[in-house]
Design a protein that fits this description.
4-stranded antiparallel sheet; alpha+beta; DNA-binding; 5-stranded mixed sheet; single chain
DNA sequence: TCTGGGGTCCTAGGACCC
DNA sequence: TCTGGGGTCCTAGGACCC
């Protein structure tokens, strides 16, 4: 049986979230900044038209803000996550088979819906989402995930399709593929794109027809799957179960350069605390942790980048177990005389609590008071707000908070920030 | 002054074993 | 001058995604 996939993709998602609560932003060039108000990570169509590429550092377009009435905002992840959850919940009304692919994208399986006019069904999904959440989406329908992605792109780029494009059984599918540059294919990044162009494989049709063994040799099994998917052979299934993370990263750049060991340890400690929190929230334990420190690569000054891996003898999710490793590692990595820009920690060797190996000689984290203490800390922080209970190693001043100077309110997740309707 | 953060998968090659 | 071969496991690095 032939598969049918639909890809629902929210248009300029972060910008759209802000516009729901600030309608005056409609038709204006709007950009959302990354953490620390660094780069522009989401752009409205109006901002894209000014030829500002995604990833541009905010400060580089400061001189254009007034001229074009550009509005820039800090990223408000609490708001985006909540709006995303609303969108995803609604999708389950249209099919039980939903893969939440990212904060603003979901694949649906429409197998068994062949009797419907699928384009109309897509329009219904789009209309419902717009009415119930205020978020505009594009819908692409195709026989494989990769083709659904392409259909989605066409729906988004050509206003005539009104946000929905169905590539399934399309009479001129080769013409469509020939019009897509390889760099716009899902799974083909900048490296492969350049390589393919060098070999005169410039569009999706040419990639679909390229010799399979050549593709596999150059682009591994992953590239071969992309190639087959372009031909309508489905190789990527819907993945509906949310699998626990295999590694958990927490890292940040600093607003100001950091020069002392103590500050570096405080920062690393606070990221470590976050990472282990995430570890517990997915009911896992881990035994490996990596720490890295780096200077600012954009500056013309002495550079130093280094990392360290260390391990616990038995897997744990007890924050102090990791904190002592992290602090020791940072101390070893630290070199006097550099201006540090970034610190990060990555937890790896993660296993679920049930699969945690036991040790003859050491007590298991799961059986002793360490787990009881952690559960208690998590409970308090959940009820009373983040970091009510924390660790002295992370410092007592709120020094490692992100820079978010242009943050909008948490309209949907904080009682005292609800939008107010005046009459 | 100011340049993000968090993930996954695949492969080649080294280490180690017999 | 001659100096095996094959298997497995692990890791680093490269590619991609949002």
């Amino acid at each position: 049986m032939k598969d049918i996939f639909a890809l629902i993709d929210c248009n300029n998602f972060y910008v759209s979230c802000e516009r729901v609560f600030q309608p005056s932003l409609r038709y204006k060039p709007v950009g959302i900044l990354s953490n620390n108000d660094g780069c522009i990570v989401a752009l409205s169509d109006e901002l894209k038209k000014l030829n500002i590429p995604r990833g541009t550092p905010g400060f580089k377009i400061r001189h254009l803000l007034k001229k074009y009435d550009i509005k820039l905002f800090s990223s408000n992840y609490a708001l985006y996550a909540d709006m995303s959850a609303r969108v995803m919940k609604i999708l389950y009304q249209f099919t039980p088979d939903v893969e939440i692919y990212s904060i603003d994208e979901a694949f649906l399986s429409l197998n068994g819906f062949e009797h419907l006019n699928l384009t109309d069904y897509g329009k219904k999904i789009r209309k419902t989402l717009k009415q119930w959440t205020g978020i505009p989406v594009s819908v692409g329908i195709g026989p494989t995930k990769t083709l659904a992605k392409i259909a989605n792109r066409i729906a988004k780029k050509n206003k005539g399709y009104k946000g929905v494009f169905n590539i399934l059984n399309h009479p001129k599918i080769d013409d469509i593929l020939a019009s897509i540059d390889v760099k716009h294919i899902w799974g083909v990044g900048p490296r492969y794109s350049k390589m393919l162009h060098r070999h005169r494989i410039c569009n999706a049709l040419e990639l679909a027809n390229a010799p399979q063994n050549w593709v596999k040799k150059r682009m591994t099994i992953v590239g071969l799957k992309t190639c087959k998917e372009l031909k309508g052979i489905s190789c990527l299934d819907l993945e509906m179960d949310i699998s626990p993370k295999k590694e958990i990263v927490s890292s940040r750049s600093f607003g100001k350069p950091v020069t002392t060991l103590n500050e570096l340890q405080e920062a690393a400690s606070s990221y470590c605390i976050r990472a282990v929190e995430k570890l517990r929230s997915q009911h896992s334990v881990a035994s490996g942790i990596m720490v890295y420190i780096a200077t600012n690569p954009f500056k013309d000054e002495p550079q130093y980048v280094n990392f360290a891996n260390s391990r616990l003898s038995t897997p744990s999710a007890f924050t102090p177990d990791f904190l002592s490793l992290v602090n020791k590692d940072v101390e070893n990595l630290f070199r006097e005389g550099y201006k540090y820009k970034k610190v990060g920690v990555m937890i790896n060797d993660i296993v679920s609590e049930e699969n945690a190996p036991l040790d003859f000689f050491e007590p298991s984290y799961l059986d002793d008071e360490r787990k009881t203490i952690m559960d208690c800390v998590d409970d308090i922080n959940k009820k009373m707000g983040n970091n009510k209970v924390t660790y002295t190693k992370a410092g007592t001043k709120k020094r490692w908070k992100m820079k978010r100077e242009k943050l909008t309110p948490q309209y949907t997740t904080k009682w005292n920030e609800l939008p107010i309707v005046e009459d």
